[in-house]
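Q: Trace token order:
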Amino acid sequence: MNGVVYQESNGPTDCYAAISQVDRLQSEPESIRKWREEQKERLEQLDANSRKQEAEWKEKAIKELEEWYARQDEKLQKTKASNRAAEEAFVSDAEEVFPGTEWERVAQLCDFNPKSSKQAKDVSRMRSVLISLKQAPLVR
């Protein structure tokens, strides 16, 4: 060993050459690279389509929500008008009190149809009492 250093190597001794060889070994075949690019383009197109569809859905949802609010407001106005008319009729009927017409007024305020009643409580006994009093009023 005369001061000369011998390197044992299985490949190139230059550092840059070793890196380039690793790069070549790790580089993908042309078909895989081409597939990756096509897949990337396809995914970008799908993303763009989904963003476009999401924007359309948002616009549609906003429009439907505005229509719903308009319908609700219209319903509310109709209900208010109906309630005002019913209140005026009730007040005018309350002012016209004649003796002996109490049960007729009570009967007007009660719903005697058991199927149209939307109450959760059972009011059949009260209904039957009111009907019997309407047919045969109490005599004092």
In short: Residues 61 and 114 are 41 Å apart (CA to CA). The chain has a mean pLDDT of 79. Residues 30-95 form the longest helix (66 residues).
